[in-house]
Amino acid sequence: MLRRLRLRRLPWLVLAVALCCGSAGAAEVLRVLSWPGYADADVVEAFEARTGAKVEVTVVDADETLWQRIVTRDGADYDVFAVNTAELQRYIDRGLLVPIEPAALSNLGAQLPRFRDPSTLPGTTRDGKLYAVPYAWAEMGLIYDRRQLDAAPQSIAALWDPRHRGKVLVYNGGAHNFSLAAQMLGKASPFRLDGADWTPAVERLIELRRNMLTFYVQPEESAHLFISRGAALMFANYGTQQLQLLRAAGADVGYVVPREGALAWLDCWVITRGARNKTLALAWIDHLLGTGAAHVLSTRHGLANTRDPAPHQADTERLVWLEPVEDVERRNLLWERILSGDRAERVLAP
Predict the structure, then answer these.
(1) Hey, how many other C-beta atoms are within 10 angstroms of the C-beta on 158?
(2) Are residues 149 and 183 in the same domain?
(3) In this predicted model, what pLDDT tens digit does every residue of 175-188 receive, in sequence order?
(4) Is residue 221 part of a domain?
(5) How many folded domains does the chain comprise?
(6) CA 202 vs CA 83, 191, 197, 206: distances in Å
(7) Which residues does 254 contact at the CB level (< 8 Å), separation at least 6?
(8) 156 plus 245 within the same structural domain
(9) Contact (Cβ atoms closer than 8 angstroms) between residue 129 and residue 232
């Protein structure tokens, strides 16, 4: 059971008064580091109106960017941020986060059972203390153009199919792409490459590079490239969020979870060691768990929230939840070399 901190949750009204009546009447400022779609203007405005605080939002689009933003000054530049459970461990290891008091979050009780019990979510606790609160999740399925493919792809091997050469969009991330290669190699865990696995994994990703039309980072960028460049198939790092963007733009696309299982991420809100006002940071997390923010997340951005059943509930048994990989720095370095066009022997050179 989580050890309870001796803190008392302030009601929203008391919190708002405390924030508005600070030194010299200046409003408190909450510094949020967010992924696209997690802190939209109307969601922020509702929080500001409710608390009297001001929110400064910085948006990131890659795990490594997030890490550099936080680690550069030991979290002193931000109060609260969102991170997936696979990346979470290195922040805890580095001492960059502080425990979260569950009793301060009234909306925790409204989450689906699978997200409400920390014991079922490996990595969100450490030494009996809660460090991360689940917020959004998605599986990384395959999006395909119905006009170019006669049938839905059934396997991630479709990304390597020579019939799609020059027609495949891939996310620009070494960690995830080496996990795809590990799935292609039949590894029991796509997050653990042994010494003998690196060469065939690199060879697989070099083959994937030959099929690539290009790569993307942000979901909006992927939708634009898919349509404007005539892609046939995409590894959807943001899952149904990208599907919704494409369909809103008029694309005739389908979406599948491959038979090998789709990698799936779970993003959580955490509080930095350098947070200036932890009560305000807790209030932000509780606000994001409310019905308003959850509705925005799902209807506007196509992402699954932790309150409502996911649209692809039947496929959840084939999800492969992200775990920390054996060497994220090596994966990213080798992926950069692969993108540069190096041959396998040069990619793997020290």
Answers:
(1) 21
(2) yes
(3) 999 999 999 999 99
(4) yes
(5) 2
(6) 27, 15, 9, 6
(7) 143, 144, 146, 149, 152
(8) yes
(9) no
Amino acid identity of residue 194, one-letter, is D
pTM: 0.77
**62 domain residue, yes or no:** yes
Structural element, H or E, at residue 278: helix 278-288
Nearest to 209 by CA among 83, 117, 104, 334: 334
- Type of residue found at 99: P
Instruction: Indicate if 178 and 252 belong to the same structural domain.
Output: yes
- Tens of pLDDT along 111-143? 998 898 887 787 899 999 999 999 999 889 999
Where in the sequence is the domain holding 252, given as residue range(s)? 139-263+317-347
Residue listed under structure tokens 């493919």? 149
Please give the structure tokens belonging to residue 341: 């066009």
Cβ(274)–Cβ(78) below 8 Å:
yes
| Res 309: pLDDT | 85
Residue 302 pLDDT class (50, 70, 90 cuts): confident
